[in-house]
């Protein structure tokens, strides 16, 4: 997540922290997790600062980015979410379960049949996580000032 967003001095990590804090400040129910091989529940709240979150993130490890982890965790913990947003630099990987299958399984077990998944790959590389046949999944490749609006409009069902 230390890679720079194309054409900027902004790291993918800093951008993902900023977007996560916006979500935490504006949503009644939102949780942040970090994951690679394993998932870690993060204590972040909307009143945290970017510098406080970045300081905490320095203690987290790195590894393969298994993008199914948030949905598998939510299913296991019986969490109720209508949207999963994954921010990554460009690393995407899946272990035993593909992320789109993990979302389908989560929908079935939670009863939230319209739960959505957005994967934001902040550097423009080739990846595919979303099932192109599923209107509730979106891959965003690259990052610019249009992404927050695109993300909001997708989550709100406007696109």
From TrEMBL:
Gene3D superfamilies reported for this sequence: von Willebrand factor, type A domain
An example Gene Ontology CC term for this record: ribonucleoprotein complex
Molecular function per GO: RNA binding
UniProt superkingdom: Eukaryota
Short name of one Pfam family: vWA_Ro60
InterPro entries per record: TROVE2, vWA_Ro60, vWFA_dom_sf
All residue ranges annotated as the RNA-binding protein RO60 vWA domain in the record: 1-155
Sections of the chain in a coiled coil: none
Protein's UniProt name: RNA-binding protein RO60 vWA domain-containing protein
Species: Parelaphostrongylus tenuis
């Amino acid at each position: 997540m230390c890679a720079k967003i194309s054409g900027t001095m902004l790291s993918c990590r800093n951008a993902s922290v900023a977007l996560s804090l916006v979500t935490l400040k504006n949503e009644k129910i939102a949780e942040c997790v970090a994951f690679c091989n394993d998932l870690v529940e993060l204590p972040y709240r909307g009143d945290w600062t970017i510098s406080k979150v970045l300081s905490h993130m320095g203690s987290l490890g790195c590894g393969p980015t298994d993008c199914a982890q948030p949905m598998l965790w939510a299913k296991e913990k019986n969490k109720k979410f209508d949207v999963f947003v994954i921010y990554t630099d460009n690393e995407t990987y899946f272990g035993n379960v593909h992320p789109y299958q993990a979302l389908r399984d989560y929908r079935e077990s939670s009863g939230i049949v319209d739960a959505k998944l957005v994967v934001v790959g902040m550097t423009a590389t080739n990846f595919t996580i979303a099932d192109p046949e599923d209107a509730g999944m979106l891959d965003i490749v690259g990052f610019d000032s249009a992404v927050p609006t695109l993300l909001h409009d997708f989550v709100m069902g406007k696109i």
